[in-house]
């Protein structure tokens, strides 16, 4: 799991929380006279300070992720700042690039207008299909992003609303198109 964040303070906070979790996991409860095996808890988690909107494909190869999370992104309320929102039509193409077919993208916010913005763009993108209510109800990650992140708990304490959506990455039509040569994914560039 790799967390990407552009703000230095948030990256430092997350790194400190990870260090706490690793330290707590390294103190196993064992009976006297036994030796505990070394803990490998949280060794598959890391954070990097970067601009994911610009450099995501430089970090993540095509189709390698099974899940993407957009948890309480900055709403950028002013119209001139909308281009800085983490969910946009252009960026959804980048997310589809790194997300494997069948993978799921999750979005959660406490800002209604931002949820409409994000959900509308996801719903309009041809490579994403919204999970049904039944799928959302049984997906354990939905409950996690909705209820168990630090920001989710802050929203809960303040009595705010939470808006959660999830979309499955569908295969690209070109990846499954067959032509006369038998090649998969071949495309003609001559316009005929």
Tags for this model:
192 residues, alpha/beta, 4-stranded mixed β-sheet, 7 helices, 37% helix, globular, disordered C terminus
The percentage helix is: 25-40%
* Number of beta-strand segments: 6
Q: Rg from C-alpha positions? A: 20 Å
Note the beta-strand portion: 15-25%
Strand order of the largest sheet: 3-4-6-5
What does this structure look like?
Helices cover 37% and strands 19% of the residues. The chain has seven helices and six strands, in the order βαβαβαβαβαααβ. Residues 177-192 have low confidence and may be disordered. With 192 residues, it is α/β, with parallel strands linked by helices. It has a four-stranded mixed beta sheet. Strands 1-2 form a two-stranded parallel sheet. Helix 3 (89-98) links the parallel strand 3 (65-71) and strand 4.
Care to give the gist of this entry?
37% of the residues lie in helices and 19% in strands. It is of the alpha/beta class and 192 residues long.
Summarize the SSE layout with pairings.
Elements: E1 2-5, H1 8-25, E2 46-49, H2 52-59, E3 65-71, H3 89-98, E4 99-109, H4 112-124, E5 128-130, H5 133-138, H6 140-147, H7 150-157, E6 163-169
